[in-house]
Amino acid sequence: MNELHLLLAGFGGQGLLFAGKVIAYCGLIEGRQLSWLPSYGPEMRGGTANCGVCVSDEPIGSPLVLAPKQLIAMNKPSLAKFIDTVPSGGLVLIDSTMIDDKISRPDVSTFYVPSTGLAEEQGLKGLANIILTGKLYAEYKFCKPETITAAIKKCVPAKRSEMVEANIKAFEIGKNYK
Amino acid sequence: MAEKVLMKGNEALAEAAISAGCRHFFGYPITPQTELAAYMAKTMPKVGGVYLQAESEVAAINMVLGAASTGKRVMTSSSSPGISLKSEGISYMAGSDLPALIVNVQRGGPGLGGIQPGQADYAQATRGVGHGDARILVFSPATVQEMVDLVTTAFELGDKYRIPAMILADGMLGQMMEPVILPEKQDPASLPKKDWAAAGHEGKRKKNIINSLYLDPYLLEKTIVERQSRYKAIKAAHQMSEEVYTEDADIIVVAYGASARVSRSAVVQARAEGIKAGLLRPVTVWPYPDDAVKKLADSAKAFLAVEMSAGQMVDDVRLAVNGKRPVKFFGRTGGVIPTPNEVLEQIRALAKEVQ
Known about the structure:
Radius of gyration of chain A: 15 Å
Low-confidence stretches of chain A: none
Order of helices and strands of chain A: EHEEEHEEHHHH
Helix content of chain A: 25-40%
CATH architecture of the largest domain in chain B: 3-Layer(aba) Sandwich
Low-confidence stretches of chain B: none
CATH class of chain A: Alpha Beta
Oligomer: heterodimer
Order of helices and strands of chain B: EHEHEHEHEHEHEHEHEEHEEHEHEH
Number of helices of chain B: 12
Shape of chain A: globular
Number of strands of chain A: 6
Number of helices of chain A: 6
CATH superfamily of the largest domain in chain B: Thiamin diphosphate (ThDP)-binding fold, Pyr/PP domains
Number of domains of chain B: 2
Helix content of chain B: 40-55%
Structural class of chain A: alpha/beta
Largest interface: A-B, 20 and 24 residues
Distance between the termini of chain A: 23 Å
Strand order of the largest sheet of chain B: 3-2-4-5-7-6-12
Mean pLDDT of chain B: 97
CATH class of the largest domain in chain B: Alpha Beta
Number of domains of chain A: 1
Structural class of chain B: alpha/beta
CATH superfamily of chain A: Pyruvate-ferredoxin oxidoreductase, PFOR, domain III
Largest sheet of chain A: 6 strands, mixed
Radius of gyration of chain B: 21 Å
Strand content of chain A: 15-25%
Mean pLDDT of chain A: 94
């Protein structure tokens, strides 16, 4: 299975930490090594928020994701801040509802997904994060197909269990988005 | 085997303390430790325990002193500036021979400093928090699993030697999530009884007195000498460390906590380049793993201490190496976490020097 050195970046409230947790749980369920490290402090309250997820078959040394091989960017300041840190050959997923810029990095694979717009159209407000997670999975298999549902069930709080189906639906939308 | 769960270091440590039979938490909130206190606030009432947010750190540590006097497993947690406020109470506990767990999720200092991870409280923790000839046990976890496992060790050794114990973590370990196996739950009633505790005697025995004030210098010295003999026993029996690729290493990187994780990545990369590097990771920083350092000083050519400070633990490396080999230092401060590449560059330069 592919190893992840992933950075999810955007505004606080876009569910980046949650999406990172779902992806981390996929690693946990499959018995792999992993780390999840959020930015913390005042930036969580409305400013930029980001979260690094490493999944590997080797022990994780530093959990800091300074040169993300995979980047999910959900707002302009985050894309601007991190695009140059992606190494050549990296994978970049952009929420094109939130970001109308095109990037000029021919050496990375870039996918523009209007995930915030798609989420609103489908009655899945707030799940643009999981749509992008689905697209990440489509382009880069970081776990077995059956693991995702199990990971979502682990991450959705028990009192909001109705959200499990919505998350699975969002994931599928992202996975099938061309 | 119990199921692995994904938890933040702060929350996992809190759960581990409850599992270890701790039912008394006194604290005052501060970033980046807050999740620990929040977890306690939520969980303690459900297990019949006490969570109390005091009016200040000074009040909280004195509540810990009071509860510890009754023989209960008790703890507090804070981050750097808060530990300074608690240091007076910790000295009183050391002087009163009271075991308790103190958690420091370090951030950058001095003063209010910042809220990003730091390791600049090493000297404070290991040279005795507070005044007097006081030492405390200091454990330095490097994984969320160790944030859990060292809690039980800290409580048990603290009880055995009647000495406060600290877990010296940092903002990175507190905030990050990793898979973790939680320990089995201990019933507080099943913990060994403490015959020295001031917990009521119904007139059936002589009263126990918990005190750190001795106006007769000869009497005070007697208590200090006895306490120092316990410190000596701890140094002899409880140095803990981990070694990675040290058997044939020319360069020994010495780092604890978050710095050790970064250094581990750098050592793996150095090995891939053919540089014989290894990592010595202190798990206890008081007592310092002197014996492991001394042994490696026989075979290695040079040492490199890596810290998130301006150079504190490096003193302990130098003391143990005792002039036998060169000891270099690399550190970042103010909440900046060193990168594996920065450490790798230091290893490369040192490898060239000692060739």
